[in-house]
Write a structure and sequence with these properties.
By secondary structure, the protein is α+β, with helices and mostly antiparallel strands. The protein contains seven helices and 23 strands.
């Protein structure tokens, strides 16, 4: 009768198989036949065991064994195999990618070099490299005496621009303009003449002086001269008891700047002279320059010094030295301006505007050119015979006024 019983046809059920313990023999064992009822009985789910989430430190190896002792379906085995394959392929891909070296960097990287900011610049007055803050100072002009009783003068060596002209009776006088120069002693200070104003006004300089001629004093207001006359500014000056008056009035750059600042004259605006780089001549062509503007006591001589590329000044047959440090005055540039000159009573009169001939000595050579000045407050412009601008060497520029070219003698 058992053989006559036919099971109903329907979808094939997947029967979970328990994993058989591994035998030491290679012979396959015949599986026991089970009826559908027996099979169904084995498929009945068992009650789930209560799961404990209590953390234990003991490793439960029996759970791992029971997990792997379960019979897995073909689909589960396939999914597991696929998952393992994906993990293996991902690891291979990662390892391969990590072993690929990046291409070499062929970019040329510029080396960064720190360049400290520049703290110097050319002086507005002399063209010499100076600290930038010195260029912010106002310019100052001083009338300095040149009679024999005034020698040696103090402060001429440190001046940026010096103008030499006859004051009266053949006696010459200097006007010295300062910017970066800071001499502690300047003098003897003397009085103003009208034509000197035309040499410091172009630099917007305040003027230190002890009085002046009637015309010079009358022009202070109309010309806008920043006057620091001794009479109204006595505290800026002092008398040297070792000399006789009027050859003993002195001041200093510091005291003059204090006076200027107190008056609100803290800046100076002006057009600088055109400058150039020094270039000594291999063979000097102007070694000695004599300018016969008066008499032996006042006629200057300039002797070229190749070692310093400057002109050493000689006065009355002796080195013209500065009282400060006993240094011989040695301008980098000497300019002889040919200007018409005559006397009005005892005072000199110069034609300082317009144009005229100029001898420019620098680098051991001379250029015969022209000077041009459009107005009393205008800057001097120097040009060669073809009117091309002439640049001057950085350093002190000394200008001597002569009335004719016959007063100038040049020795090669």
């Amino acid at each position: 009768m058992r053989d006559d019983i036919k099971t109903a046809k329907g979808p094939r059920r997947k029967v979970a198989r328990l994993a058989e313990p591994k035998q030491e023999t290679d012979e396959p064992k015949e599986l026991a036949f089970k009826t559908p009822e027996e099979t169904a009985q084995t498929d009945l789910p068992t009650e789930p065991k209560e799961m404990s989430f209590k953390n234990t430190k003991k490793f439960d190896g029996d759970k791992i064994k029971r997990f792997f002792s379960r019979s897995l379906s073909i689909k589960q085995w396939g999914l597991g195999f696929l998952l393992i394959l994906i993990v293996i392929m991902g690891g291979v891909a990662y390892e391969t990618k990590s072993n690929i070296l990046p291409p070499p960097d062929t970019t040329t990287h510029a080396k960064t070099v720190y360049i400290p900011p520049k703290t110097t610049e050319p002086s507005r007055l002399t063209g010499v490299e100076i600290q930038k803050e010195l260029n912010l100072l106002p310019t100052t002009a001083v009338q300095i005496e040149n009679s024999p009783d005034a020698r040696p003068q103090a402060g001429l060596y440190d001046a940026g621009i010096v103008t030499e002209a006859i004051a009266e009776g053949g006696i010459t006088r200097f006007n010295a303009v300062y910017l970066e120069g800071q001499p502690e002693r300047i003098g003897p200070v003397r009085s103003l003449r009208p034509y000197y104003s035309d040499f410091f006004l172009p630099y917007d300089a305040a003027l230190a002086h002890a009085g002046g001629s009637g015309q010079a004093l009358a022009e202070i207001g109309p010309l806008g001269i920043k006057s620091m006359d001794h009479g109204a500014n006595g505290g800026t000056y002092s008398r040297d008891s070792n000399r006789f008056a009027p050859h003993n009035l002195y001041t200093s750059r510091a005291r003059l700047l204090e006076n200027q600042n107190g008056k609100g004259w803290t800046t100076s605006t002006f057009t600088s002279i055109v400058r150039k780089a020094e270039k000594k001549a291999e063979t000097p062509t102007a070694r000695v320059v004599d300018v016969a503007i008066s008499s032996f006591l006042y006629n200057p001589r300039f002797e070229y010094d190749g070692a310093t590329n400057s002109y050493l000044r000689v006065m009355a047959g002796k080195p013209h030295v500065d009282e400060n440090g006993a240094r011989q005055i040695n301008p980098k540039v000497v300019i002889v301006l040919i200007m018409p000159h005559h006397y009005a009573g005892i005072y000199s009169v110069y034609q300082t505007t317009g144009a005229g001939k100029a001898y420019i000595f620098q680098d051991g050579t001379v250029v015969e050119g022209v000077w041009q000045k459009d107005g009393r407050g205008s800057q001097f412009v120097f040009g060669d015979a073809n009117s091309a601008p002439i640049g001057l060497n950085p350093g002190q520029t000394w200008m001597t006024l002569a009335s004719t070219i016959g007063q100038v003698t040049i020795t090669p």
